[in-house]
Amino acid sequence: MTKKSLSQRFRFKRELLDALQMRRIIRRMAGELIERQDEIERMLLVGIRTRGLPLAERLRDEIASMEDVELPLGALDITFYRDDLSTIGPQPVVKRTSLPVSIDDRVVVLCDDVLFTGRTVRAALNELADYGRPQAVRLAVLVDRGRRELPIQADVVGATVRTTSSELIEVGFTGLDSRDVVNLLSVKPESNLEEAAREAGEEEEGE
Fold first, then answer.
1. pLDDT digits (tens, 9 = 90+) for 22-71
2. Strands 156-160 and 136-144: what pairing?
3. CA of 68: how far to CAs of 32, 65, 88, 121, 190, in Å?
């Protein structure tokens, strides 16, 4: 779902987090990961593309600043592991999965911008299983918007926002977007609610 099509179906409702608030939240999330002192040396941060990757990068930088240790950073593209692959078009955009070290016996921290239905995380777990057997897998998300469809919960959560099926969380990261921001959008009255809600799930989880 492109930014253009997003604007056609959804309208801005309110800003939830600005750049300063995001920075503070990500710093706190990094602190929560550091508190797992028995795991920190074995951690591998893995960002789920697209906007889980900049979150993983920010967490890596914060942890390096606090602990003087630079954790390895990977990226996961879950396109071919999605359970809705047949609905997202005949030529889905596939980006690279990159894991700089073996995940065997590592504590893999999956990072994503928004946790919604849980289906993206399930796809990420399925893909990880093809690369090895980690000691443990943790989940860190910037925003948990509830409305889960699968029994998946995050270990580290930046912000919890309760939403309706007609709303969408839009996350922006400088470098990919114009600025760091988290916005709440709502379906435009003239849009088809069911179709817009489906696209909202695609946008938030594994864009």
1. 999 999 999 999 999 899 999 999 999 999 999 999 999 999 999 999 99
2. parallel
3. 16, 6, 42, 29, 52
Structure tokens at 184: 């709440």
Q: Answer yes or no: pTM beyond 0.85.
A: yes
Q: How many Cβ atoms from other residues are within 10 Å of residue 114's Cβ?
A: 25
Question: What number of other Cβ atoms are within 10 A of residue 125's Cβ?
Answer: 17
Question: How far is Cα 96 from Cα 94, in angstroms, rounded to an integer?
Answer: 7
Token pair of 6, please?
Answer: 């997003």
Give every CB contact of residue 63 below 8 A, 6+ residues apart in sequence. Answer: 30, 33, 34, 40, 69, 70, 71
**Amino acid residing at 40:** I
Give all domains of the chain, ordered by start, each with its CATH number. 15-165 (3.40.50.2020)
Alpha carbons 172 and 142: distance in angstroms, whole number? 11
